[in-house]
Design brief:
Elements: H1 5-22, H2 26-59, H3 64-113, H4 116-121, H5 124-166, H6 168-175, H7 178-215, H8 217-222, H9 226-252, H10 254-278, H11 284-325, H12 336-343, E1 349-356, E2 366-373, E3 378-383, H13 389-396, E4 404-409, E5 412-413, H14 419-424, E6 426-430, E7 438-439, H15 440-445, H16 453-462, H17 466-469, E8 478-479, H18 488-502, E9 506-510, H19 518-532, E10 536-540, E11 552-557, E12 560-565, H20 567-573, H21 576-595
Parallel strand pairs: 3-10, 3-11, 6-9, 9-10
Antiparallel strand pairs: 1-2, 1-4, 4-5, 7-8, 11-12
Helix pairs in contact: 1-11, 2-3, 2-5, 2-11, 3-5, 5-6, 5-7, 5-11, 6-10, 7-9, 7-10, 7-11, 10-11, 16-18, 20-21
Length: 596
């Protein structure tokens, strides 16, 4: 098997990819290789002993002892080969499973370290393909193919060497077809490689479409869009099937060529070798040994053709996994210990001439924004949808970095902060709350230990969330994936409770009361007021009742600060905030009339 240049490059990449997870298993792999070498030695010795037995039986009809000795030795070789092949498979496949486990964990860890904007351009389904399908392809190559590959290559080399040692001229006669075999595999390999790339690309499209549609199943059913979605999925799956059938057609063409070349080698050996036996140039035992070596040559070649299919698929998968692992992670720095000390005395926030646009769009989401929020003070941000309110939070959390200007937290530029330490200081409650499958306790603590059930219950009572869950299992209540068995308001109450449990230095509410009913909102407003006391707070809201107690207010319009001041001064100004206030008041009056 002679890989083409790209495959050699990919093979080097795969070795580099696997080296951090292979090195800890080096002794297990070495043991597996020893078993491979032992099995190869047996495969090389068996034909020689077979030929020797034939020569002894023909030449010495009465010498039964030699024949018995050769037969026993042949039996020992076969038994030893069986033992080494068994342990070789167990050791290498067991090690391979451990390596793939470590690799899958490494990829998952990498995904968690990728910046948020990576997921703006890479659908969830495609990322899942890397973790599941692509690593599975690598797993199949490593666990099921690598031992066979190493063994077959060793047998081919050993068989060729043994034939040339037995009879150089007859060896050349038999091996004359081998260059054609390698050329055939290389030729079809190029076509297969391109074909598998198409298969993988189409599979990623299938997974991406599935991930998107399963997540939006409620919307699809409400809009009765099942038929159109099905047609779209059928089209995507048809393209995947077409690519798969094309690869199968190419692959199916390889085996017949190998069989024809095998037949040509057998015919050459039968003709030339039989002629030389008749004329006494070689013994019958040598001819028998050569027939056994022909089997040892072409059976591994058939195996290699079979595994070449897996190998090429794994190379394409490796390309994609390597591309993911080489994506730049969120930068880490050395300020983690100092950050916690700094934030305890200063939690001020400052935006200085900040302009920003999202990577996938050229339009500015923020345009020359400047403001200062002092430690312990509260700031409300209001504005129409798309005015840039939530973008302020994303930049403050360092999910993105501004193209122009600078943001400071605690008197230091955000670029000086370790992202994880920075985010530990900030408790964010958003309008859309995602909950994980598990219990209420799991979702409140997110795996952090140290809080007793009584402490968790006290926090739940503080946010009025205990009234919701106490008769539904309490802290042991099961939460479905995404929190689908809780209402939007109940999810937000859980998120508020979690915020108090984590006790952040800075509180950020991003439309946090938007989905809460008026009764729950009254509970939350008093809890929010208590939570904001002594904390630096940023409140983004459409409901003006949430921001009346804030120290200052920013009014955003098309990415710029249109107005700023406190609640009463902005109403007196009669500008944009006054219009928001008037609309909100009219809506409140209508709601009261309806309730009455």
């Amino acid at each position: 098997m002679i890989p083409q240049q790209n495959e050699r490059k990919n093979l080097i990449q795969v070795i580099r990819l696997l080296s951090p997870v292979l090195y800890p298993r080096r002794w297990e792999l070495s043991l597996g290789i020893l078993f491979v070498l032992g099995s190869t030695l047996c495969e090389v010795l068996a034909p020689i002993l077979l030929g020797k037995g034939v020569d002894v039986a023909i030449a010495d009809h009465g010498n039964k002892n030699d024949l018995i000795h050769v037969g026993l030795l042949f039996l020992v070789v076969i038994v030893f080969r069986s033992i080494t092949e068994t342990f070789q498979g167990l050791v290498i496949q067991r090690t391979g499973q451990k390596v793939i486990h470590d690799l899958r964990v490494r990829v998952f860890e990498k995904i968690h370290s990728l910046p948020i904007f990576y997921f703006d351009t890479h659908p969830t389904g495609r990322v899942l393909t890397r973790v599941i399908n692509d690593i599975k392809a690598l797993s199949e190559m490593f666990t099921a193919s690598i031992s066979v590959l190493v063994l077959d290559v060793a047998i081919i080399i050993g068989s060729i060497g043994s034939m040339l040692m037995l009879n150089l001229r007859l060896g050349f006669v038999v091996l004359v077809t081998f260059p054609v075999v390698f050329w055939t595999i290389w030729k079809f390999g190029k076509k297969l490689s391109e074909s598998y790339k198409q298969v993988r690309a189409r599979l990623a499209e299938v997974n991406a479409f599935l991930g998107e549609n399963i997540g939006a199943i409620g919307t699809i059913q409400r809009l009765v869009a099942e038929s159109s979605r099905l047609q779209k999925f059928e089209s995507i799956v048809a393209k995947h099937t077409e690519a798969q059938l094309k690869s199968l057609k190419i692959y199916a063409s390889v085996q017949p060529y190998a069989n024809i070349l095998n037949g040509f080698a057998m015919a050459s050996l039968m003709g030339v070798g039989g002629y030389w036996v008749i004329h006494g140039k070689i013994t019958l035992g040598v001819l028998v040994a050569f027939f056994a070596y022909i089997r040892n040559l072409f059976q591994p070649i058939r195996d290699l053709v079979e595994k070449y299919n897996t190998f090429l698929s794994a190379m394409v998968a490796a390309d994609r996994v390597i591309a993911l692992l080489e994506e730049p992670s969120e930068l880490q720095d050395l300020y983690a210990q100092d950050d916690s000390k700094q934030v305890s005395t200063d939690t001020s926030v400052a935006f200085k001439d900040v302009s920003f646009h999202y990577p996938a769009h050229s339009a500015l989401a923020l345009d020359n924004v400047s403001f200062k929020l002092e430690t312990g003070k509260s700031l409300a941000v209001v504005g129409a949808t798309g005015s840039g309110k939530s973008t302020l939070v994303r930049l403050l959390m360092r999910f993105y970095d501004p193209q122009v200007g600078e943001i400071e937290f605690g008197g230091r530029p955000l670029s000086d902060w370790n992202r994880q330490e920075l985010r530990k200081q900030m408790g964010v409650v958003q309008q859309e709350v995602y909950l994980f499958r598990g219990t209420v306790r799991d979702n409140l603590t997110l795996g952090r230990n140290g809080l007793s059930d009584q402490a968790l219950k006290d926090k739940c009572e503080k946010s009025k969330f205990w009234e919701i869950i106490k008769n539904r299992g309490g802290l042991d209540m099961i939460v479905s994936e995404g929190g689908s068995n809780l209402s939007l308001g109940e999810r937000q109450l859980l998120a508020f409770t979690r915020m108090w449990i984590f006790d952040p230095k800075v509180l950020i509410l991003d439309e946090a009361t938007a989905s809460v009913d008026p009764v729950s909102e009254r509970y939350l407003l008093s809890a929010i007021k208590e939570g904001m006391r002594g904390r630096t707070s940023i409140v983004i809201a459409h409901r003006l009742s949430t921001i009346q107690s804030c120290d200052s207010i920013l009014v955003m319009e098309q990415g710029r600060i249109a107005e700023s001041g406190n609640y009463q001064s902005l109403i007196k100004k009669g500008g944009l905030f006054y219009q928001f206030h008037r609309i909100y008041s009219e809506q409140g009056e209508r709601i009261k009339r309806v309730e009455t």
